[in-house]
Amino acid sequence: MGGQLYAAGNSYNGAGETNWWLDPESARAVLRAPIPNKILHPLDLTDTVRLTNATYDRVGGHEPATPITTLFRDLVERWPYAYDAVALASLADPGLRRDVRALYVDVSCAFEDETYGKGLVWTEDPYPGTGLETAASVVFSVDR
User: What family is this protein classified in (predicted)?
Assistant: First the structure.
């Protein structure tokens, strides 16, 4: 889970997604590595799956209680998105994926401007200019 391609970011300045914005150089190293089957779950996906108060109440009220249901029940601050859970569900069950696109993805490491940590995307191979060797499978929607 990380990055954003077409969606607005959720980092300090709104340019990038928080995970990539905190360390875009590391994200870039992974994106540029010759990994044959990169699967990305950006904010473009995770922002589409909302957790409502009713969902929190339903999970938190489940009996018998478990550590997870207790966590949901006792949360003081309820986040409206299930960022990492969406990515994990997609990895655990690839059949949930609905809109997957082969894209060349990089991240801006231009610390001096507002694009720092922002996802960069190409539909065609930009290599060798960017250092990207392979396209990534970018998941944009999942079956809910």
Answer: Belongs to the IUNH family.
* Distance, CA of 1 to CA of 4 (rounded, Å): 10
Which residues have a Cβ under 8 Å from the Cβ of 75 and sit 6 or more positions away?
56, 60
Predicted confidence (pLDDT) per residue in 122-141, tens digit: 999 998 888 898 999 999 99
pTM to 2 decimals? 0.87
Query: Where would I find the H helices in the chain?
Result: 18-22, 24-32, 43-46, 53-60, 67-74, 83-92
Give the single-character DSSP code of 95: G
Q: What is the pLDDT of residues 8-38, one digit of tens each?
A: 899 877 789 999 999 999 999 999 999 989 9
Q: Sheet of 39-40: strands edge to edge?
A: 39-40, 136-142, 97-107, 119-122
